[in-house]
Design a protein that fits this description.
Layout: H1 2-26, E1 33-41, E2 46-54, E3 59-63, E4 66-71, E5 74-82, E6 90-97, E7 102-109, E8 122-130, E9 135-144, E10 148-152, E11 155-160, E12 163-171, E13 179-186, E14 189-197, E15 210-218, E16 223-232, E17 236-240, E18 243-248, E19 251-259, E20 270-274, E21 277-278
Antiparallel strand pairs: 1-2, 2-5, 3-4, 3-6, 6-7, 8-9, 9-12, 10-11, 10-13, 12-19, 13-14, 15-16, 16-19, 17-18, 17-20, 20-21
Length: about 280
C-alpha cells in the first residue's frame, strides 16, 4: 500500500510540473521588433514608413530626442509624415517602444529650398583705344551688392552702379607716352587690373566747360547714354527729368552709362549738368 501511494504521488507531481511548464510557456511575453525607413521627402517634410510587432507597449517615433508620434501597441504598419523641417537638412529617426527599447533607426535628408544661392562678385577691366592724352577702359562685372569703382593708381576716377553691368569709360587728361595701371574694385576688393599706355603727341586744352549726351542702344527697360565733357572743375551729373541718376568725376572725360528699370514704350529726357549748368 505504501508503494502504491508513493507511485501515485510521483504521477501527480509529474502532471503538475508538465502543466506548469506548458502554461508558463504559452503565456510568456514576446520581444518587440520593427523597422522604420525614409519613403519620400520634400524641402520641409519627411515621409516615414514603419512596421512593428509590440504586443506589450506602445511604440514611439522620435526625431533625435524629440517625440513626434505615438503609435498603438500590437502588430502594425503604415506611414507618418514629419513636417515643418528645414531644407537641405539631415534628420535621424528612431522607432522605439515606450518601455525604452529601440527597434530601428533611419536617417533622412530634406531636399533643397527655393532660395537661390548667391555667387561671389566678379569682374574684368581691359584697355581699349588710346590717344596721347586718353585711355578707353572696357569693363564688365556681376553679382555686386554695392557700387563698383575704377581707380587709376591711387586715384578713384569713376563710380559705377551695383549689379551686373558692362560698358566703357574713357580716362582723359593724361600725359603722353605714359603707362597707367587701372583697378576695378568692389567693397575694397580688387576684381581685376589693367595696365595701359598713352601714345605720343600733344592735346589741345579746352577753356570753358562743355559736353554732350546722346542715346545709345535701348531695350524695353533700359537706355544706354553716351557722354563726353571737358574742362569741368567739379562733378558732372546725368539727370533723368528731375532725378539725378549718375555722378561723374570732373575733368575731361567720355564714356557710357546705362539707365535701367525703365517702363517700355516710354520717352525720357536726359540732361548732362555741371555746377547747375546744363551742358546738353
Amino acid at each position: 500500500m505504501e508503494k502504491l501511494n508513493y507511485n501515485r504521488i510521483l504521477f501527480l507531481l509529474s502532471i503538475m510540473v508538465f502543466s506548469f511548464a506548458f502554461f508558463a510557456n504559452g503565456t510568456q511575453a514576446y520581444a518587440a521588433s520593427g523597422s522604420i525607413s525614409c519613403s519620400s521627402v520634400t524641402s520641409n517634410s519627411v515621409k516615414l514608413k514603419y512596421d512593428y510587432a509590440s504586443p506589450d507597449s506602445q511604440v514611439e517615433i522620435r526625431r533625435g530626442g524629440a517625440l513626434v508620434a505615438i503609435l498603438a501597441s500590437g502588430t502594425r504598419s503604415g506611414y507618418y509624415t514629419n513636417t515643418g523641417l528645414s531644407p537641405n537638412t539631415k534628420y535621424t529617426y528612431y522607432l522605439r517602444t515606450t518601455s525604452g527599447q529601440t527597434l530601428d533607426t533611419a536617417t533622412c535628408s530634406t531636399s533643397g529650398g527655393t532660395s537661390p544661392i548667391p555667387t561671389n562678385p566678379s569682374g574684368s577691366i581691359s584697355c581699349g583705344s588710346t590717344s596721347n592724352s586718353s585711355i578707353q577702359l572696357n569693363y564688365n562685372y556681376s553679382n555686386t551688392t554695392s557700387n563698383v569703382e575704377i581707380w587709376n593708381g591711387q586715384s578713384r576716377i569713376a563710380t559705377l552702379l551695383s549689379g551686373t553691368r558692362s560698358g566703357s569709360y574713357t580716362n582723359t587728361g593724361l600725359s603722353q607716352n605714359t603707362t597707367y595701371t587701372y583697378y576695378l574694385r568692389h567693397s575694397g576688393q580688387t576684381l581685376d587690373t589693367a595696365t595701359c599706355s598713352t601714345s605720343g603727341g600733344t592735346s589741345p586744352i579746352p577753356t570753358n566747360p562743355s559736353g554732350s549726351i546722346s542715346c545709345g542702344s535701348t531695350s524695353n527697360s533700359s537706355i544706354q547714354l553716351n557722354y563726353n565733357y571737358s574742362n569741368t572743375t567739379s562733378n558732372v551729373e546725368i539727370w533723368n527729368g528731375q532725378s539725378r541718376i549718375a555722378t561723374l568725376l570732373s575733368g575731361t572725360r567720355s564714356g557710357s552709362y546705362t539707365n535701367t528699370g525703365l517702363s517700355n514704350n516710354t520717352t525720357y529726357t536726359y540732361y548732362l549738368r555741371h555746377s547747375g549748368q546744363t551742358l546738353d
